[in-house]
Task: structure prediction
Amino acid sequence: MRALKLVFAILTLSCIRADAGYTHYYTWKQSPDDTSLKACVADMNRLIEARKTILVSPDLPESTPGSPKLSATNVDFNGIGDKAHEPFVFPYAFSDHDSFNFCKTAWKPYDEVVTACLIVARDHFSPSVLEIDSDGSWPDWSRGAKLYASVFGRPARNPMTANGLAADSAKSFWFNILVSVFVFLAILLGFFIWQKRANNHGKAWRRSFE
Result:
C-alpha cells in the first residue's frame, strides 16, 4: 500500500511541475513586414481590450489593472499579482541573431489572452515566417480559442499546424501515449510489490502457527 502511495505521489508531483513550466514558443524565421505587423497588433489589441481587467503592464510598477502596455507595433502584458507569471511581448525579438521567443504562463488566467494572441499571429504570418509551438496541445488552448471566436466571430484555427485543421499535434499524441504507458506500468509495479508483501506476511503468519 505504501508503494502505491509513493507511485501516486510521484505522478502528482510530475504533473504539478509540468503545469508550472507550461510555456508557449514563437520563433521568427524572417522579419515581419511592417504592414502585417501593424494589422496583427491591431487584432491583438482587440483581444486585450476584451480581457484587459485581468491584464497589467509588466514593467510599470505604478500600472493599474486594465492598463497593459500597447502601441501600434507592440503588445506587452502580464497577469495581475499572484496570477502573473512571465510577460507576453510581441513581436519581441526577430533579428538574425535573436529570433526565438517564449512566454511561460504556468496556466495562469492570462494564458487565454496569450494563446488567443498567438492564434491571431498565425492569421497574419505563415509558418514560413513565424513558427508557433507550445508545451500544450490544441485542446489545451480552448479558452484562448473561445476568446478569439467571441471577439472575431469566427472559429479559431490551430496555429501550431501547417493548415490549422489538425486537432492535435503528433508530438502531443505520442506524449500522451507515453504518459499513459508510464502510469499503467507504475500502477502495475505497485500492485506486484503490494502482492509480494501480502504473500510474505501471509507466510509469516502461517509459520507462527506451525
User: Anything to note?
Assistant: The helical segments are 2-20, 34-50, 111-124, 142-152, 170-207.
